[in-house]
Automatic annotation (TrEMBL):
Keyword Nucleus among record annotations: yes
InterPro entries the UniProt entry points to: ARM-like, ARM-type_fold, INTS4_8HBD, INTS4_C
GO biological process: snRNA processing
SUPFAM superfamilies, alphabetized: ARM repeat
Matching PANTHER family: INTEGRATOR COMPLEX SUBUNIT 4 (PTHR20938)
Taxonomic lineage: Eukaryota, Metazoa, Chordata, Craniata, Vertebrata
Principal location: cytoplasm
Gene name for this UniProt entry: ints4
Residues annotated as transmembrane: none
Protein name as catalogued: Integrator complex subunit 4
Compartments in which it is found: Cytoplasm; Nucleus
Organism: Takifugu rubripes (Japanese pufferfish)
GO cellular component, one term: cytoplasm
Chain ranges of the Integrator complex subunit 4/Protein SIEL C-terminal Ig-like domain: 823-962
Domain INTS4 8 helical bundle: 612-814
Family indicated by similarity: Belongs to the Integrator subunit 4 family.
Length: 965
């Protein structure tokens, strides 16, 4: 039986006492002390009741579903160990051993007191499976006590003792123990001589069971993760395991070879049957490259991924991975010219009468061929042409990592990456586009390569097309024909897929700004101008014409001679686009047109002065305590206006400025609600002011949730400040409730809840209290014992006095605060043509939006649809509707289904995005140590859930028609 929390039970009694004794002098609350039944006693009784092993197993399974308190763990373990020694059935002992491991993980419990008992259980155990489980429990204990060298040494000795067991599971667990707890500086005695952990583990690289060989390699890797330097002598043994019959062994061996190549990159290793020597990292690169042709696709994936992280390899080896030379018997076939040259130099020609008289004179052993020829040669060629798309993706990613660190290699692998644009799997095509974008700074596309790239614009997948637009933004092209080709293909894309409009315009903006000298000779053709004749003025509503203008105007920014080629209507169109699409059209200096605009480099100041202005504004507000109420409110109003304007002008500081303005807005509302005349008048006479103050308190609460969940980059100090304002708003609400509703029961429950909120605030932000000096919370916490026992009327008076006397809390800013924003691209809301559908049926409305600085959008972003009759629907998009094109940026592409009864006239619906939040006074529940079940978790404190609109609403005309009879 799960008992309720003692706090909960005691709290109930207090409320009942107060409810009955409010008219008289209040009696002290009775405190209840609930004793919890002993878990160990209950378990002992259950196990004693078991008549056979099946019953005992059933009781143990039931016990595993219940949580165990930290103070009961040791008693329960003793009971389980006692029953373990009595039990004869292997399955029950196995379950007890498993439970012992789970109990040892309980938070707050130190298992050092039971290590000896656990080790003693190993001595008489005959079952191999139970022995393996007991060793697993010892592994748990060892990881719980990392700072205890005595325990670690004893556990390692136990592992060495059982390494000779015939059961593979026991040997595996022993190797795991050695890998997790082994210390390189402590010699161990095994088989009569002192040895270190690494040599003991390496003995099992040649074990007869492949599972043990895998465990040995993983134990050695575990040692490496524990900051133990692996001996170089292990390299040769790991290389031999690359040709093992079992894929798990080969996979672990690839990891081991890679680790050693990073530890000893410059060591020299000999090439077998040769006088040559080679760097270890190059040798390892060749061997891992050879694994890209492994029989198991999982090993191939791992080998390809590993190659991408070997950045210290020699350029010669790196280039061999892209070498397509034909091999015969692991040797390169020589051309006819080379063979003729050798024959001429030797003076001998084949007579044709003797069989193979022109064969090579030396004998060739396949196993001793230099790995330059057989391993690294063509590794990425094999990987990019693999039958499994996972291998192809891994190879593409590895190419990306290597190409980013080597510009020459980036140029050589360009053709291979461009070929991957034609892959049959969309995910491979998408990955290759992303990779090419990442290395675009090192490369310049030729016309034939650009032709292959642009062919992907025909793809039906929107993700592929937008990724390609992003690629063209960052790509350099070599000739003006390339620019023209790119423009024509993008305009074809625009006519075929009109929804790509914004993405194509953005792409052409960057294409023009990157290649101004290549766009210049194309301007007369692009703008259709003529030196002698006037040409017709194009239509400004044509998206294709706007696309051309975006390309030209962005090129003109770096090319001062270009505006001379513009027609008169081009200048007018520039002024129009500069106002309507200012994010795509840059400010230009257009001579003689009356549109001389200041160049952007003169108009925008440095970021330092806005930051200084922001700090000075906050410092000015800190002097507000010395002003009278009207002057203080006016100062706050002016500062809020300045900060909002600063956020509009400086995008880098927009989040920080908005955060400060919203915080000061909360303080202004609080100040207005606490005006002198409101509190000096009788309650019936100030009804209107009371309503205003109630609305202000509610608005402050809403603003605090925006401050907490709409902004990212906040530190604990800022979160404490936000919760402090929220606490003030709750205190104001409580005071207003006491003034307007004289009912005692409501007031008592409100007072109880406020005291709980105060206690939660003190618990959550104990470390931040030094920064809250002279604040409302600090003054209340000083009289906290009195608050928890005084009458509600007295509590309200204390709150009212403290609230009016508390000073403004100074806001300390972190380095960077970002505000979560959303922009709905589609629908645009510009069309006057209603979307018609039959009433009772559904209409699918496409939603396309960009999200900035949103944490976990899959769970927090919702779409709200507001109908003209006041109905509101909230839709939760599927996780697959979200894409992540860049850091802190997401894209939402989804469909919303609308339905309604028939209307006589078309009407507008509003579509907006909401950010959902869930806030509780306790930041995190205390997690139980070893039980995975959620059945018996303590009930959380009151959780507040809500939504915050964070996009501008878009209005869409719809027209449900009556169904035809």
């Amino acid at each position: 039986m799960i008992c309720p929390s003692p706090h909960h039970r005691a709290g109930t009694v207090v409320v009942q006492n107060r409810a009955h004794q409010i008219p008289h002098e209040e009696a002290p609350a009775k405190k209840l002390r609930l004793s919890k039944p002993s878990k160990s006693a209950a378990l002992h009784i259950d196990l004693c009741k078991a008549t056979n092993s099946t019953d005992a197993l059933q009781y143990l399974l039931q016990f595993a579903r219940k949580p165990v308190e930290t103070e009961s763990v040791e008693g329960v373990i003793r009971i389980l160990l006692e029953h373990y020694y009595k039990e004869t059935d292997n399955s029950v002992r196995l379950k007890i051993a498993s439970l012992l491991g789970l109990l040892s993980k309980t938070q707050g419990f130190s298992p050092d007191c039971i290590v000896d008992d656990f080790i003693n259980t190993l001595t008489n155990e005959k079952s191999h499976q139970v022995l393996a489980q007991l060793l697993d429990t010892l592994l748990v204990i060892g990881t719980q006590l990392p700072e205890n060298p005595t325990v670690r040494h004893r556990l390692i000795e136990v592992a060495c003792k059982h390494l000779s067991d015939m059961y593979f599971g026991v040997r595996n667990k022993c190797l795991q123990l050695l890998g997790c707890l082994g210390l390189v500086d402590s010699p161990l005695s095994k088989d009569g001589g002192p040895r270190d952990v690494q040599s003991i583990i390496s003995d099992y690289f040649v074990d007869q069971d492949p599972r043990v060989r895998t465990a040995a390699l993983k134990a050695m890797l575990q040692l490496h993760d524990g900051a133990v330097k692996i001996h170089e002598i292990i390299y040769e043994q790991a290389c031999r395991l690359l040709s093992d019959d079992y894929e798990q062994v080969r996979s672990a061996a690839v990891q081991m070879v890679w680790v050693l190549s990073q530890l000893y990159p410059e060591s020299i290793v000999p090439i077998p049957s040769s006088n040559e020597e080679i760097r270890l990292v190059d040798d390892a690169f060749g061997k891992i490259s050879h694994m890209v042709s492994d029989g198991s696709w999982m090993v191939r994936v791992q080998a390809a991924k590993t190659l991408g992280s070997m950045l210290q390899v020699s350029p010669h080896f790196l280039e061999q991975t892209l070498d397509k030379k034909l091999m015969s018997d692991l040797r390169r076939k020589r051309t006819a010219h080379e063979r003729a040259k050798d024959l001429f130099a030797s003076g001998e020609f084949s007579s044709g009468r003797k069989w193979a008289d022109d064969a090579p004179k030396e004998k060739l052993d396949r196993n001793t061929v230099n790995l330059i020829a057989s391993g690294a040669c063509g590794a990425f060629v094999h990987g990019l042409e693999d039958e499994m798309f996972e291998v192809r993706i891994a190879a593409v990613e590895a190419l990306c990592k290597l190409a980013r660190s080597s510009p020459s290699f980036a140029e050589k692998c360009l053709d291979f990456l461009v070929d991957m644009f034609n892959d049959e799997i969309e995910e491979v095509r998408l990955q290759s586009i992303h990779v090419l974008r990442e290395i675009s700074t090192h490369i310049t596309l030729r016309e034939d390569q650009l032709d292959t790239v642009l062919a992907v614009l025909e793809d039906s997948s929107r993700d592929i097309r937008e990724a390609l637009h992003e690629l063209i933004c960052y790509t350099n092209v070599s000739t003006k024909e390339c620019v023209q080709l790119a423009l024509l293909e993008l305009l074809k894309n625009l006519s075929k897929y009109p929804t790509d409009r914004n993405s194509i315009w953005k792409c052409l903006k960057f294409l023009g700004s990157r290649h101004p000298t290549l766009v210049l000779p194309l301007v007369p053709e692009l703008l259709n101008t003529h030196p002698y004749f006037d040409t017709p003025e194009p239509d400004m509503d044509d998206p294709a014409y706007i696309a051309v203008l975006v390309l030209v105007f962005n090129a003109a920014k770096s090319c001062p001679t270009m505006p001379a080629l513009f027609s008169d209507h081009t200048f007018r169109h520039y002024a129009y686009l500069r106002d309507s699409l200012s994010h795509l059209v840059p400010p230009l200096r257009l001579p003689g047109s009356g549109l001389d605009l200041v160049d952007s480099r003169y108009g925008s100041g440095s970021v330092e002065s806005p930051q200084l202005f922001l700090q000075q504004s906050l410092n000015r507000v800190s002097t507000i305590q010395n002003l009278e109420a009207p002057g203080a409110q006016e100062l706050l109003d002016l500062t809020i206006r300045d900060l909002r304007r600063l956020g509009e002008l400086q995008t880098e500081l927009a989040g920080t400025a908005d955060f400060c303005a919203t915080y000061l807005r909360c303080q202004l509302l609080l100040m207005k609600a606490l005006q002198e005349k409101l509190w000096n008048m009788a309650i019936p006479l100030c009804f209107k002011q009371n309503v205003t103050a109630t609305a202000a308190a509610q608005q402050i609460l809403e603003e605090t949730y925006k401050l907490e969940f709409l902004y990212s980059g906040l530190k604990n100090r800022q979160v404490a400040t936000i919760h402090h304002v929220r606490l003030q708003a709750k205190a104001l609400q409580l005071i207003l409730t006491a003034r307007s509703r004289p009912g005692q029961e409501t007031l008592i429950s409100s007072c109880e809840k406020f005291v709980q909120d105060m206690a939660s605030f003190q618990r959550l932000f104990a470390l931040e209290m030094p920064h809250l000096q002279d604040s409302f919370a600090e003054k209340l916490l000083e009289v906290m014992p009195r608050l928890s026992s005084c009458k509600p009327v007295e509590l309200v008076k204390i709150l009212q006095t403290t609230l009016r006397q508390s000073s403004l809390l100074q806001l300390a800013l972190p380095e960077q605060i970002h505000r979560a924003t959303a922009t709905i691209i589609e629908p645009t809301g510009e069309s006057d043509n209603p979307l018609r559908f039959t009433s009772g049926l559904v209409l699918a409305l496409d939603i396309d939006a960009t999200l900035e600085h949103v944490q976990d959008p899959q769970n927090t972003v919702k779409v709200q649809v507001l109908y003209p009759d006041g109905q509101s629907h909230v839709i939760h998009p599927k996780p697959g509707d979200f894409r992540k094109p860049g850091p802190d940026r997401h894209r939402l592409i989804t469909q919303v289904y609308l339905s309604h009864t028939s209307w006589t006239e078309p009407s507008q619906i509003e579509v907006r995005l909401l950010l959902a939040y869930s806030s509780s006074s306790s930041s995190s529940l205390s997690k139980l140590g070893w039980c995975d079940s959620n059945d018996s978790l303590p009930t959380p404190e009151a959780t507040v859930e809500g939504t915050i609109p964070f996009s501008k609403p878009v209005k869409v005309f719809i027209m449900p028609k009556p169904p035809r009879r």
